[in-house]
Design a protein that fits this description.
Helix 2 crosses helix 3 (54-68). By secondary structure, the protein is mainly α. It contains three helices and no strands.
Length: 71
């Protein structure tokens, strides 16, 4: 894959978990809160997600933003 470093050993080829499910949910909630605060609400907010991973993230953020605004 272009741009991705090539592992130089077996140990480097193993994936390390950076955020577990609970930590990822917590981080997404913080992001949603910061987005809503910075945007002054979500009525005119537009989220765009890139297809490879960004689309589900944008959808989840949209859900959390709606929850935070009581919609």
């Amino acid at each position: 894959v272009p741009g991705r470093p090539v592992p130089t050993s077996e140990a480097e080829s193993e994936h390390e978990v950076i955020l577990d499910e609970v930590a990822a949910q917590r981080a997404l909630r913080r992001m949603a809160g910061a987005i809503a605060e910075r945007a002054g609400g979500i009525s005119d907010l537009c989220l765009v997600g890139l297809r490879r991973g960004g689309e589900p993230l944008a959808a989840r953020l949209a859900e959390l933003l709606a929850e935070s605004e009581g919609q």
